[in-house]
Specification:
The complex is a heterodimer of chains A (370) and B (580). Chain A has 14 helices and four strands. Chain A has 370 residues and is mainly α. Chain A has two domains: 235 residues, no CATH class; 107 residues, abc type-2 transporter like domain (abc type-2 transporter like fold). The radius of gyration of chain A is 28 Å and the shape is elongated. Chain B is α/β, with parallel strands linked by helices. Chain B folds into three domains: 221 residues, P-loop containing nucleotide triphosphate hydrolases (Rossmann fold, 3-Layer(aba) Sandwich); 82 residues, Alpha-Beta Plaits (2-Layer Sandwich); 153 residues, Rossmann fold (3-Layer(aba) Sandwich), CATH 3.40.50. In chain B, the strands form five sheets. Chain B has a six-stranded mixed β-sheet, with helices on both faces. In chain B, strands 20-21-22-17-23-24 form a six-stranded mixed β-sheet, with helices on both faces. In chain B, strands 2-1-4-5 form a four-stranded antiparallel β-sheet. In chain B, α4 packs antiparallel against α5 and α14 runs parallel beside α16. Chain B is globular, with a radius of gyration of 25 Å. The chains are: A mainly alpha (370), B alpha/beta (580). Chains A and B meet through α1 and α9 of A and α13 and α14 of B.
């Protein structure tokens, strides 16, 4: 009996989303857009930047440095400045992100084997990119320094470092981004589909119709919980396929663990969505509420910036963010063969969050009936 | 009469057609005119094209073909000139609910460019005219439905218009305010102003000087309402004193070939015949009397639409007779009270509804009938008192009680994106029908209501009449003992309404119990008993005939339901004053 009722509700929920042209658009548009934008456009790497060089040295070493910078694939255009004013202007107008000034006695000092300074001027308005450019430039300068007579003598005594990146040996950007997207798309779709579901019924007046039917409150909640989870699983699967076949990510861990953990992740996301939905009177409020949750959830998840970098008082807030835990699982399954114990460690908090949000939604839902 | 009203032609419609999307036109080649100094009723059920017509006259929208001339200007050429000299009151009055009455007036005076020095006098006149002076500081959102409409009217009248367009001013207004509103508008016509009053209520239509009767975008009639009513002259009869169940008698009468329409009116039955011969009233039994009755606008409208449906209800024929287990009432309200903060929406409502009875909650919007209704179907928790359905306490056994009730909401509130079939499947499933029985019930509903051709269409795109049928089908799918109907036929055409009540009447004969809310006086006549709800209290309870009889006076020997309502409200108010 209860299964008949529940099945009817689940089928109806799926149909209501799929038969509505706007609903279908939400399910297809944002996921494709997000995949393309994040994996191709919004890269965090610094490439194609322009730099300027003011070479006041007429000797060999100054020319060598210019050529090395010109030869680096990171930089798109190298401007040669004639005087310091041009440097100032170019930085001011953001025509270049960095300028290198080579002093007139650069080659002379090197040949003499004495210390010499090299000046980088960086655009602090783009602090992150500047930092990275500074790193590139320093690396080029260090390469040059190693080949100077003094440098050659020093190499014998210096410790040389050879960096090796585990899990993502070539630091391929998409290897980092696509697993993040798998988690965030499930958050986006799960939240929006659920947040709209009750609010839409309220707006159309069908909610009363549902409430006078023999469906019990928990049945309604389960009926509202399962369809968005099914849709979320569908999107996760689509993204996993894209990750493997389109972006050629290694799949080192067990998909089985990924799916197992994602059930709890989706349940916690949908719980939050139901809570927002029960709180909102209109679809507009529901959408706004969903975004109000989603933006901080993305920022506080370790998606783009490591949680360890956040101030101490903010870090505990991330503990209630389901995205935080699931990100570790997805990245772990794709890039390193994450162990079952680790997955369980991340899944327990997800399970707790799901229990809290779902009971909060149920409580609010009942209270709203008064 | 001191002055002869000026009857110039204010609006001329020639072959006006307007389409939205690919379906049949919203207005189809309408021609007609509207005169000054008259109230012209724009009459038709919801979706007939009334609002479209009014918007065309304001120049806010242009016709696809044909022309609309208002005050001598073509709406396509010079809408600004028209808008400067008309008053328009949209359906959802364009009032700002968070502004007070006075602030709303100020705002509209600014918008309409009313000179500052004229304002004091104009405001004073309008506030007196609408009797809103006492409430000028009150927020518009806190006014009753009737007062809102009056304020909307005042805003539309700020700059004395030559043409006043009122879109369904009578909706959501209690009968007393409705009469007041009507009188105000009538006064305006004496000054030569032309008034367009759009309505779905046929009693309002009857009172207009002229009507344009629309149905599904087509103009069915244009002229004086009495001309149309006269077509049914001599064909309307009242059958009274019958023996046996009146609903069964009505069904049998409707099945006779020459009877084209019939409805229950208290203890009597009104019928309209195809010819003026006295109908055969054999089914009414011995002792029944038939007398000619004055025709009404509705009779003629039904006649124009080709007559109402027959008296048979396949739905009820397929229904098992519900055995009476005991004499206990099926729906019971005991001291039901609901308070929202310090506002008591329903105050100590008590009644009991027997098996096979139609019980009506009658009252204007906001009176508390919806609150009472919602408490009885478990949508609201009462602050005090208790409600029972089919013997189940709504507080303890809500789910068991809900299995026994069918619910039909006020506006179409099924899933618009789902097709008819999917809606039926959903409701069957939610009420626990499965397998063979589910298939049988769904097939039965499809057959009874003739959904076949439309089965795959999204239900939001269905015509209003079909939506109504679908809502009924979903509500009775699980053969409930009690049916809860919230304003079931407001805005639908009379044929659909007849069909609906044919089903309900027949279901009641099978032992189904019905609770219906309505603000529609005619619908109240279908009920066995009525509770009049006013300001949260039940001010009278009895059969329609008894309520009418209780207000018979020398001036009004044959009061209508509306007369009874007004008299009883006034009586309760004087009673309250004396008590205070």
């Amino acid at each position: 009996m209860w299964w008949t009722r529940l099945r009817a509700l689940i089928v109806k929920e799926l149909l209501a989303v799929l038969r509505d042209p706007k609903g279908r658009a939400i399910l297809i548009g944002p996921p494709i857009l997000q995949l393309l934008v994040f994996s191709y456009a919004a890269t965090l790497e610094v490439r194609n930047v322009d730099v300027m060089i003011l070479n006041r040295d007429s000797g060999h070493w100054g020319q060598e440095l210019v050529e090395r910078i010109e030869g680096s694939p990171t930089f798109r255009r190298i401007d040669i400045a004639a005087n310091p004013d041009q440097v100032r202007q170019a930085i001011d107008n953001q025509a270049v992100i960095a300028a290198v000034e080579i002093s007139p006695d650069f080659s002379r000092h090197i040949e003499a084997g004495t210390a010499v300074d090299l000046q980088f001027i960086l655009d602090g308005r783009r602090s992150n990119a500047s930092q990275i450019v500074s790193g590139y430039l320093t690396q080029i300068a260090a390469g040059l320094a190693a080949e100077t007579p003094a440098g050659k003598r020093a190499t014998a005594r210096a410790v040389s470092t050879i960096p090796r990146n585990w899990f993502n040996p070539n630091l391929t950007y998409q290897w980092f981004m696509v697993p993040n997207l798998i988690a965030s798309i499930a958050l986006l779709i799960g939240l929006i589909v659920t947040a709209l579901s009750i609010a839409r019924e309220r707006e159309l007046g069908t909610f009363d119709q549902l409430m006078v039917s023999p469906l019990r409150v928990h049945e309604i909640l389960i009926g509202k919980l399962i369809p968005p989870m099914m849709i979320g699983l569908f999107h996760i699967t689509a993204y996993i396929l894209a990750a493997i076949f389109l972006f050629e990510l290694p799949l080192r861990g067990s998909l089985f663990m990924l799916y197992g953990s994602s059930l709890f992740y989706l349940a916690s996301v949908v719980g939050i969505g139901l809570f927002i939905s029960a709180l909102s009177m209109t679809q507009q409020q529901a959408i706004l509420g969903a975004f109000l949750f989603m933006v901080p959830a993305m920022l506080l998840s370790g998606f783009a910036t490591p949680i360890e970098n956040m101030p101490d008082w903010l870090q505990p807030v991330t503990l209630i963010n389901p995205l935080r835990y699931f990100l570790i699982v997805v990245k772990g399954v794709f890039l390193k063969d994450i162990s079952l114990a680790e997955v369980i460690d991340q899944t327990i908090p997800l399970c707790l969050i799901a229990m809290v949000t779902l009971s909060a939604a149920a409580w609010l839902f009942r209270r709203r009936l008064e | 009469m001191t002055s002869i009203p000026d009857k110039t032609e204010l609006v001329r419609l020639s072959g006006v057609t307007k389409r939205f999307g690919g379906r049949s036109p919203a207005l189809d080649a309408i021609s007609g005119s509207i005169l000054g100094g008259e109230i012209t009723g724009l009459v038709g059920p919801d979706g007939a094209g009334k609002t479209t017509m009014i918007r065309l006259m304001t120049g806010l929208m242009l016709p696809d073909s044909g022309t609309v001339e208002v005050l001598g200007f073509d709406t396509a050429q010079n809408p600004a000139a028209i808008q400067a000299s008309i008053g328009y009151m949209p359906q959802r009055f364009g009032l700002y609910e968070d502004l007070s009455v006075q602030e709303n007036l100020n705002l509209y005076a600014d918008l309409r460019g009313l000179p500052k020095n004229e304002r004091t006098a104009t405001f004073d006149e309008l506030l007196t005219f609408t009797d809103l002076k006492r409430f000028s500081d009150r927020l518009a959102g806190k006014l009753s439905g009737g007062m809102k409409q009056k304020l909307g009217l005042a805003c539309a009248l700020l700059k004395k218009p030559r043409l006043l367009l009122l879109d369904e001013p009578g909706v959501g207004v209690d009968p007393i305010s409705r009469r007041e509103l009507w009188k105000m508008v009538e006064n305006l016509t004496r000054e030569g102003i032309g008034v367009v009053w759009s309505t779905a209520y046929l009693d309002e239509a009857e009172a207009c000087n002229a009507v344009l009767l629309l149905n599904q975008g087509k103009l069915l009639f244009s002229g004086k309402p009495s001309e149309l009513t006269a077509r049914a002259e001599g064909r309307v009869f009242k059958v009274s004193g019958m023996s046996g169940r009146k609903r069964q008698v009505l069904a049998k009468l409707l099945d006779q070939e020459d009877v084209i329409d019939g409805a229950i009116q208290g203890e009597a039955i009104r019928i309209v015949t195809g010819n003026s011969a006295l109908p055969d009233i054999l089914p009414a039994g011995d002792g029944a009397a038939v007398v000619p009755a004055p025709p009404r606008f509705e009779d003629a409208f039904v006649d124009l639409l080709g007559g109402g449906p027959g008296g048979r209800s396949k739905l009820a024929e397929a229904q098992q007779t519900l055995p009476a287990k005991d004499d206990r009432p099926v729906i019971e309200a005991k001291g039901l009270t609901k308070a929202f903060g310090d506002f008591t929406a329903a105050d100590d409502i008590t009644f009991a509804i027997r098996r096979g009875e139609i019980f009506g909650l009658l009252g204007p919007n906001g009176a508390g009938k919806s609150t009472t209704f919602k408490m009885l179907c478990g949508l609201l928790k009462p602050t005090a008192g208790e409600g029972r359905v089919a013997g189940f306490d709504l507080r303890r056994d809500a789910a068991s009680a809900r299995n026994q009730l069918g619910y039909m909401a006020q506006k179409f509130s099924l899933y618009g994106d789902l097709s008819i079939g999917q809606n039926l499947d959903f409701f069957a499933g939610v009420y626990g029908l499965s397998g063979q029985r589910k298939r049988a019930r769904v097939a039965l509903m499809n057959e009874i209501f003739d959904f076949g051709r439309h089965a795959g269409q999204s239900s939001k795109d269905l015509p209003l009449g079909l939506k109504q049928r679908l809502a009924l089908a979903c509500a009775v799918m699980h053969e409930p003992q009690a049916l809860f109907l919230d304003e079931p036929t407001s805005g639908v055409d009379p044929i659909t309404r007849r069909e609906f009540w044919t089903h309900i009447n027949a279901l009641v004969e099978k032992g189904v119990t019905v609770l219906v809310t309505t603000h529609f006086m005619e619908e109240a006549e279908y009920c066995d008993r009525i509770s009049l709800i006013y300001r949260g209290r039940s001010i009278a309870l009895g059969s329609p005939d008894a309520l009418k009889a209780s207000v018979v006076s020398k001036d009004n020997p044959d009061p209508t339901m509306e007369d009874a309502f007004i008299a009883l409200v006034e009586r309760s108010e004087t009673g309250a004053k004396e008590a205070a």
